[in-house]
Design goal:
The complex is a heterodimer. By secondary structure, chain A is α+β, with helices and mostly antiparallel strands. Chain A contains four helices and three strands. Chain A has helices spanning 5-21, 27-37, 49-58, 82-116; strands at 25-26, 62-68, 74-80. A three-stranded antiparallel sheet of chain A has the order 1-3-2. Chain B is globular. Helices cover 76% and strands 0% of the residues of chain B. Classes of the chains: A alpha+beta, B mainly alpha.
């Protein structure tokens, strides 16, 4: 399924924050985790993750340090800050509202389908 | 292999390293993307390539797909620019560009400044050991011999620090400097001998390649790393020239204003400010090139673009005039050195044109011009060489003549082969990458010749 660009962009921030809440990570691993969580349904353009990470860093939601990978390559790791954890909570509540509204309308009509059948 | 959708292309059959180097270079030219961002994206790209190769894809396929998945580079750079709009402006402010997280720009600046001061101090250090610099006396040859040793080790140290090289690298980097210092100071040169001056002139060239090894962070065997060092050298030269011009104005004005109040500051200016400034400026220029990468980056290519046609025209006019009037080339050492300089300039023009050119662009008018420049330079030099060849043997082989002749041959071979490759490129026989690779592959020959003049020439000619 092809999910619209706006929706992908909107869900990027909470998704990245949530993944980093699981522990420190880096760009490639985050992309892999997104694919894993969405079973490949959510397709990101890999390169677009980085401006998002940098924006989160600028807002102080995540902090970055340069480390090295298993093979000794330079790698930039990101970690959730306290401020980021608070932001994640805010996002969670916002998405809960959105989710509840969608459940009541969009998905409610879906659930009627089998009854007609 | 094409990647038109990504906005850049790589030559067919290029290795993964070359592909990544080109991809990096392409990305680096986008506004709003810093070196650190490119590093981060490169880590991503390599992880992806590795994963795809594990899944059974070939290196080339894996690279292609990884690049594709990363997305359109133009779009990414737009996103970066939007996120970091301040960068586009900060590029104009010192130190803001090229800053790395974890390695703040001001730390690099402080390091460069400290090393510049150290180099300046090193120049004055021999004074403590009884080798004074005096205004009204000739400079002791000790300074001429060791000029590069006062400065270039610090430059190599700057790169070794900023690239965080391990102790093994440090030892390997120190080796050429130690050998150079030992050789040039231990040889029993005759007073004001030619071989001493020649060794002193060639040691900086030989050691510049050691600096290159530090610059490349131990990857000096790689084509891309060498190319980057060539670009760095060109920009360093431009910066140093600009700083030297400013320094000259400063000296002239200081002499004038102090002279106006009846003082004579020249001895102090010449024995302190000039040598210390000249030494420190080497490091400051290097740091500027690193810190402000991308700002003046376009300078070297623009200069070559300007002068390639002019030099080609001059050489063609010279060839025609010589053919028309039938006059031969005078056989003097100065003439030989003059032709050497001509070849050096042409080699420089070709190097910087090649380093700035997008290898994927098809052959154009400028490439034809480049071939004309190369062919006419080689022809002019060949004419001069044959005119001199016979006479040199009858005059006897002095160290100066042999050094000039050797240089001439080394340059001639390098340029001749470049001309051949350019011709084949224009005929569509070889990709442009072949010309590029030849430029970097031939570099060790220059270094080797410089070492020969430093190490072999003095004993060969009895230190006279």
């Amino acid at each position: 399924m092809n999910i619209g660009k706006d929706l992908v962009a909107a869900s990027a921030t909470p998704l990245v924050l949530a993944i980093l809440a699981e522990g420190e990570s880096y760009g490639y691993a985050i992309i892999k985790r997104v694919a894993e969580l969405s079973r490949g349904e959510l397709q990101w353009t890999d390169g677009m993750l980085y401006p998002v990470l940098h924006r989160l860093e600028r807002h102080g939601f995540v902090e970055a340090v340069w480390g090295s990978s298993e093979s000794g390559r330079q790698r930039k790791y990101y970690r959730l800050t306290d401020q980021g954890a608070a932001e994640l909570e805010v996002q969670r509540r916002q998405w809960q509202v959105v989710n509840a509204v969608l459940q009541g309308t969009l998905f409610a009509s879906c659930q009627h389908v089998p009854q007609w059948g | 292999m094409t990647g038109q959708a990504e906005g850049f292309t790589t030559a067919a059959g290029a290795s993964l390293e070359e592909g990544i180097a080109e991809w990096r270079a392409y990305l680096r030219r986008r506004p709003g993307i810093h070196a650190a961002d490119v590093d981060e994206l490169e880590d991503h790209l390599r992880s992806q390539v590795q994963a795809l190769q594990h899944a059974g894809l070939s290196e080339e396929e894996a690279f292609l797909i990884a690049v594709k998945r990363l997305g359109e580079l133009d779009a990414i750079s737009r996103e970066f620019a939007r996120e970091h709009s301040e960068r586009l402006w900060k590029r104009l402010v010192l130190g803001a560009d090229g800053a790395r997280e974890g390695r703040p720009a001001h730390r690099d600046a402080a390091l460069a400044l400290a090393l510049a001061v150290a180099a300046a101090a090193a120049v004055k250090l021999p004074e403590l050991f009884g080798v004074p610099m005096r205004f009204d006396e000739e400079l002791p040859t000790f300074y001429i011999r060791n000029a590069s040793l006062f400065v270039l080790p610090f430059l190599a140290a700057l790169f070794a620090c900023t690239r965080a090289l391990g102790p093994g690298h440090w030892v390997r980097l120190a080796l050429p400097f130690a050998v150079g210092a030992a050789v040039i100071n231990a040889m029993p040169f005759a007073a004001r001998g030619h071989t001493e001056l020649l060794a002193a002139l060639h040691l900086p060239i030989a050691l510049w390649f050691a600096v290159g090894a530090a610059y490349a962070g131990g990857r000096f065997r790689e084509h891309g790393a060498r190319m980057n060092f060539l670009r760095f050298s060109g920009e360093w030269f431009i910066y140093y020239t600009l700083i030297a011009l400013g320094g000259w104005v400063l000296l002239a004005l200081s002499a004038f204003v102090f002279g106006a109040i009846g003082l004579r500051p020249e001895p102090w200016l010449v024995t302190w400010v000039l040598p210390c400034g000249a030494a420190g400026a080497v490091l400051v220029a290097a740091w500027l090139v690193e810190a402000k990468q991308g700002l003046i980056e376009t300078m070297a290519p623009v200069l070559t673009l300007l002068f390639t046609p002019l030099f080609a025209l001059m050489l063609l006019a010279f060839l025609l005039t010589m053919a028309w009037t039938g006059s031969g080339v005078a056989v003097e050492r100065e003439v030989l050195i003059g032709f050497d300089l001509l070849l050096v300039v042409v080699a420089g023009l070709v190097l910087y044109t090649v380093s700035a050119r997008d290898p994927a662009r098809p052959a154009g008018v400028f490439d034809v011009l480049q071939l004309v420049l190369l062919a006419s330079a080689v022809l002019v030099d060949a004419v001069a060489l044959t005119a001199m060849a016979g006479r040199i043997s009858s005059f006897g082989a002095s160290p100066n003549k042999m050094a000039a002749l050797g240089e001439n041959l080394v340059l001639l071979v390098g340029l001749g082969w470049s001309a051949l490759l350019y011709a084949r490129f224009l005929l569509g026989r070889v990709p442009f990458a072949a010309i590029e690779r030849w430029q970097t592959a031939y570099l060790p020959v220059y270094a080797a010749w410089a070492w020969v003049v430093v190490v072999v020439f003095p004993p060969l000619f009895g230190f006279r």
